[in-house]
């Protein structure tokens, strides 16, 4: 953490930290010094945030444990933690996101807080901050669930976190099947991340969940249309759910109907 030398007005210590409030500055590029100068220009004591993470991964203590000016009527018992960017118009970089998760988790441990004590600025004020594209649900899981945090491991010589990727699975015979599900149900970002060996384990499970929950198509492929219509007319099939899987018990019924000349 960097504690820069800045000119401050009067500051008041926080008596007890009870909450953390998450922010973005609403600008794609905006340094801690720009924030500080802007807020001083507004007549404040200086930067309103307590802590600030820049896109270059430099993490600054601004007001620290002094009362901030980041969320009107909600500053006296909270820490305002901000990550550089405008997440109404852009998506947060994965490494920056994971670094932000780690810094927020440190603050939670220091002050005995849980994920339930961490809020968006928009939860307490009339704003979209920290941005409509900020992955809030995933953020809350990562700061609150030990199972998810176990997916973040540290290399012996590395300062930043490494997130376990789908490519690290011991796939055995399941890799080809996963790729089929990904190609059919994954979005373009998930497909591109997998191609670049950047798809995380949690997102891989999300793809699998979409595959499990997806409703199979009711359209019969042209290759099978004639046979499907013929067997439906004969009563071998009932004409429903052409793309659902068939169990061995159902297959036995189909074979019996064919033997009976249906």
Automatic annotation (TrEMBL):
Residues of the Peptidoglycan recognition protein family domain: 2-125
SUPFAM superfamilies assigned: N-acetylmuramoyl-L-alanine amidase-like
Signal peptide: none
Coiled coil (UniProt feature): none
Pfam families hit by this protein: Amidase_2 (PF01510)
SMART domains, per the entry: PGRP
Family: Belongs to the N-acetylmuramoyl-L-alanine amidase 2 family.
Protein name (database record): Peptidoglycan recognition protein family domain-containing protein
């Amino acid at each position: 953490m960097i504690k820069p030398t800045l000119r401050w007005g009067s500051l008041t210590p926080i008596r007890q930290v009870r909450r953390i409030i998450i922010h973005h500055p609403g600008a794609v590029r905006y340094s801690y010094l720009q924030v500080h100068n802007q807020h001083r220009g507004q007549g404040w004591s200086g930067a309103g945030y307590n802590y600030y993470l820049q896109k270059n991964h430099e993490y600054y203590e601004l007001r620290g444990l002094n009362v901030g000016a980041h969320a009107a009527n909600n500053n006296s018992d909270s820490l305002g933690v901000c990550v550089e960017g405008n997440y109404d118009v852009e998506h947060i970089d994965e490494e920056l996101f994971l670094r932000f998760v780690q810094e927020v988790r440190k603050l939670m441990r220091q002050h005995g807080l849980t994920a339930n004590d961490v809020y968006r600025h928009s939860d307490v004020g009339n704003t979209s901050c920290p941005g409509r594209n900020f992955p809030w649900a995933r953020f809350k899981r990562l700061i609150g669930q030990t199972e998810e945090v176990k997916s973040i491991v540290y290399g012996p010589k590395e300062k930043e976190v490494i997130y376990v990727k789908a490519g690290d699975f011991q796939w055995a015979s399941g890799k080809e099947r996963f790729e089929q599900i990904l190609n059919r149900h994954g979005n373009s970002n998930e497909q591109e991340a997998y191609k670049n060996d950047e798809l995380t384990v949690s997102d891989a499970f999300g793809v699998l969940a979409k595959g499990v929950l997806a409703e199979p198509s009711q359209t019969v492929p042209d290759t099978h249309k004639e046979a499907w219509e013929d067997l439906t007319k004969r009563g071998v099939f009932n004409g429903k759910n052409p793309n659902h899987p068939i169990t061995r018990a159902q297959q036995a019924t189909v074979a019996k109907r064919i033997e009976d000349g249906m």
